[in-house]
Design a protein that fits this description.
By secondary structure, this protein is an alpha+beta fold. The chain has a single domain, classed as 2-Layer Sandwich (Dihydrodipicolinate Reductase, domain 2), CATH 3.30.360. Helices cover 32% and strands 30% of the residues. It starts with a helix and ends in a 19-residue tail after the last strand.
Length: 250
Amino acid sequence: MNIKKMNKGLDFLREKYGAAKGEIVIKDGHCWVGATPLIPGRMERKIVELKKMTENGTLEGVSTLRFAAFAPKGSDMRAMLAKELDLAAYLGASDVVRVMAVANGNAINVLAKLANDVNVSVEIGAGLPKGETAYDRHEIIAKRGVACDQTVDTHTPHASIRCWDADGATEYTDVDTELFGLSYEEIWNVRAAFALLQKRADAKIWKSAWSKAVKAADLAFKADAAKGAKTIAVKKGPDTNQAIKVSEVR
């Protein structure tokens, strides 16, 4: 990620719409604003739309979440799993309370249970060739309705623009009208930082949510080593899985 370009994009949004001062920093491969970890997955447009479907009656009685994420070799599988488990808690509107996992080399398959009895399956793979674009897929199965953030007949995202020249094909996917030149990952980290600086996202909530996700991911790997499920106690506290308002223009 290009931190200079990301902070330039953040400054553009702050000056255009108004927000407190702040900048993005990278610690151990994760983006932060001050002492608050960013949760960019919650800001992705496709996740925002899935969250709406679970709250506006489009989906009734969510029962199962089926997630998958794949990235090039060398990617941090714990971080990938933490992101997916956080999204499971967010879209399922309840904390992860139990995990079971089987890992093998660059892959780990996880079964989890949310406190509201929703079932979760997560497939993580970090075996794509170097330089390959990472991709993920999130499917929600309910008593009435099914939703997915990928086209039904494909496992990989479609590019909105394709250009061909003598050197081959170049693909572009337009996901944000105000942050041109930033990668997909960079865009949602900027949007997450902007949400924090505008106080549409609560720093305390995100700290707690990310801490829960990291703990659940760590326990999943321990469950694989122990060949048994791990249980996570639910502690009293604020709801960390509420939706936040999206930014004014995208």
